[in-house]
Specification:
Helix content is 47%, strand content 21%. It is α+β, with helices and mostly antiparallel strands. It is elongated and about 80 Å long.
Amino acid sequence: MDREKTYLQLFIDVTRAITSKLDMNEVFGLITQKIPEVIGVDAATIRLLDISGKKLVLHAASGLSDSYLQRGPVDTESSVMDALKGTPIAIFDAPSDLQIQYPEEARKEGIKSILVVPIPIRGEIIGVLRLLTRNTRVFDQQEINFVAALAEQCGIAIENARIYEKQNRQMNYFKAVYEIGKTINSTRRLDQILNLIVTRLTEVMNLKACTIRLIDSTNGRLELKAAFGLSKSYLERGPLDDELATYYILKGEPVMIPDATVDLHTIYHKEAAAEGVGSVLAVPITVQDETIGMIRLLTSEVRYFSPADINFAMAVAEQGGIAIQNAINYQPEAAKQ
């Protein structure tokens, strides 16, 4: 009875702490720090499925070395796969257990026992919480049930933080659309308009880089007009006119490239890898349903752009298209004066 009372109080304390945070990183950090304290383990990690639902991404950890955390993916580890199906898994001796994918790394890290529990959100498993010890430990059913219940609360906290983050990002996007539109429509200088777009998009969307290419009216080919965050060698890697992505862009469709180093929509895979480009979102710049160019948004990590990201980029491209066309039309008149 005393143990049950203790667990209930710990459950209340941990739940109150993690559900009071709305910043995603704070939630992750608190979970991996607080739960090991109350359970009496040495380390913890949180891995969540990416937007594809196929790959686990490490979001937070405590009590483990960088070398151990970077040992490789754990997606195919049987204990993790079982947890992703909704079943908590307790491992008594990790270095000798066949369920562990990296037994030698576990031995070097001094890891003995592991408890892997699913993190659910509204009945859907979104990731796993792993608790690790440096002394062999038998997790009894009461402990497993307690940690599983805490993992459910983690799911609620993560969902709340995601909702807040999404709303906050959308508000920032609305504000940025207004600010960018107001600024680019206040000038007729093409270089100022283009440079503002590539710099502000990189900042607001937390990108590695951004480029703008416009269609040359004399030869119909895409010409680089503005860039931010990329090396000269990468920018000079070659034309993009023959890329499959460009084909869709010229039809007025946005194209998302999750991995620029292998995607069939691109042709400069080695150059992307050397530059450290992860993902690319390309959106058309249109004026009265005619595509006049494109904006490419580049990240340093593999990122799946959300509908909100795509809508924001498209909104900026639409605003930019009008301002760009006005600036182009204005240039000949200014030259005559």
